[in-house]
Amino acid sequence: MVKSNNIYIRKKRKKRLIKKCILLLILLLGIGTFLAYKTEFFTVNKIVYKGDSLITGEFVKTNAEEVKGSNIITFNKDELIKKLMQNPYVNTVTISKKLPKTLEVNVNEKKGIYYQKNGNSFDIISEDLHLLERTNSLDGKNLIEIKGLNIKDKEVGMKIEENTRLEKVLNLLYKAEEKMQKDNKGVSITSLDVNDMANMKIYFGDIQVLLGNDENLTKKLSDAMNIYIHAKPKEYIKVGHEGSPDYK
């Protein structure tokens, strides 16, 4: 009988302890909810900017600063990302919440690599064929002229065309130009013509380089660059055919 009473007492104490724990948990949740929604403890008062800011910096800051004063718990970061992505130069955006009061905004920009003349203005184009900007001046911009893209009826922010083959060519030429500038050997790609992908042309200043198609493009560029530096041609360099390169 005594043993039965002890078991009963222990069960009763256990139930009381569980009830107290539940009440304590409810109390803590209530306090947490109050702090999160009814006080300024989780109010955004600081925004940290990371990543690229050369072109989009002011645009990103202007829009992100509007978030200050918002509740960091309920703040919908997807809405801000959608707003920032409206800038054609913005490639990717990530936003991290750093409790209790800080947002971290990380922006990756598209790079304007090429330009194509469009009447009295210039269309700035990325290596992945997005139309980034339409401007009346190229001052301060070190870009490669491109010919042969159909930009008619394209608006800023739109992709000019879906062409993986051309994108690879533009990416390769951009990297080659970067290396030329880094090596500082006095050669630079100033323009390219992609009207006919089977007979592409680039220019080292006034010297035309006939590349042919996009096969073995890295080797063709290397051969053309060496001829330009050492042979100093006056008119053209031809590396787009089988056999030894030709120049004049």
UniProtKB/TrEMBL annotation:
Q: What keywords is this UniProt entry annotated with?
A: Cell cycle, Cell division, Cell membrane, Membrane, Transmembrane, Transmembrane helix
Where found, per UniProt?
Answer: Membrane
Q: Which GO terms describe its biological process?
A: cell division
Q: Which domain of life is it from?
A: Bacteria
> Is-annotated flag, keyword Membrane?
yes
Task: Provide the POTRA domain boundaries.
Answer: 42-110
Task: Return the protein name.
Answer: POTRA domain-containing protein
Q: Which organism is it from?
A: Clostridium paraputrificum
